[in-house]
TrEMBL record:
This is Acyl-CoA N-acyltransferase. Residues 42-193 form the N-acetyltransferase domain. It comes from Lactarius akahatsu. GO terms for molecular function: protein N-terminal-serine acetyltransferase activity; protein-N-terminal-alanine acetyltransferase activity. It comes from the Eukaryota. PANTHER family: FAMILY ACETYLTRANSFERASE, PUTATIVE-RELATED, RIBOSOMAL-PROTEIN-SERINE ACETYLTRANSFERASE. Coiled coil: none annotated.
Length: 254
């Protein structure tokens, strides 16, 4: 039997300079947002809207580029950030990025956190793009932001403990560069369990810090380096057997 392959590579601008997205901003997220679950006493997560949040993000990493040391994406300029938020996040209904707002410091933006590869078929997602600005590191902000995200992911759609509703996911995972020890520690502290290493899980941008293993001669994406990722996960049965209480204690810790 004869066959054909009519695939054409979709058009994708490599850069969308100055594009802050549509107005009004459509987050294009395939799941409900439960605002009452997306906040704690001190921190709120609100959808990242480039016109409100992108310039502050770019300003923070502009003076501290090492904040992106372990990131697989090139976010080294405002235009690159805007492009990734539009193409990789907003146009993909399985991704959402949140701005972390510190209510205890007058509503200041403290960083970003996202859910990616959210699957309604498998009730799973990954916490990713976690970045807390330097002035807020070492405070309650990181634990609150990650904890809120776990509550949003795991609580059932019907109101549960504390009146919170969530997406009812069965699994939430977290991957980190194999050398990014602070990220490993953050995942473990929040109760996620290490499951293994995903070898060659990302092709990084040129100049990024990879795993150091030489590429094969003729590699199609050479000289972009590769990344090994350590995989952590928390599941619904973990959540119902002490995980919820552990996360709440970290959120409440003074």
């Amino acid at each position: 039997m004869a066959y054909i392959n009519s695939y054409e590579k979709p058009e994708r601008s490599t850069l969308l300079p100055g594009y802050f997205g549509p107005d009004p901003y459509d987050i294009n997220w395939a799941f409900p947002l439960y605002e009452e679950t997306l906040e704690s006493e001190r921190v709120t997560l609100t959808p990242f809207i480039p016109s409100l949040h992108a310039q502050e993000y770019a300003a923070q990493v502009g003076v501290r580029p090492e904040l992106h040391r372990w990131f697989p994406l090139d976010l080294s300029s405002l235009d690159l950030l805007l492009t990734e938020v539009e193409v990789r996040v907003r146009r993909n209904p399985s991704w959402i990025l949140f701005a972390i707002i510190d209510k205890a410091r007058g509503g200041a933006m403290a960083g970003v956190i996202g859910l990616i590869n959210a699957s309604p078929e498998n009730l799973s997602a990954e916490i990713a793009w976690v970045l807390v600005f330097p002035a807020f590191q070492g405070t309650y902000v990181t634990s609150n932001a990650i904890g809120i995200m776990l509550q949003y992911a795991f609580e059932l759609p019907s109101p549960g403990p504390g009146g919170r509703r969530g997406l009812g996911f069965r699994r939430v995972q977290w991957t980190a560069h194999s050398a990014n020890k602070p990220s490993h520690a953050a995942a473990t502290r929040m109760g996620l369990k290490e499951e293994g290493v995903l070898h060659w899980s990302w092709v990084l941008h040129e100049g990024a810090e990879g795993h150091g293993i030489p590429l094969r001669t003729g590699d199609p994406l050479s000289p972009r380096p590769g990344r090994h990722s350590v995989l952590f996960a928390l599941c619904a049965d973990d959540w119902e057997n002490g995980g919820r209480e552990h996360v709440q204690r970290l959120i409440d810790r003074k």
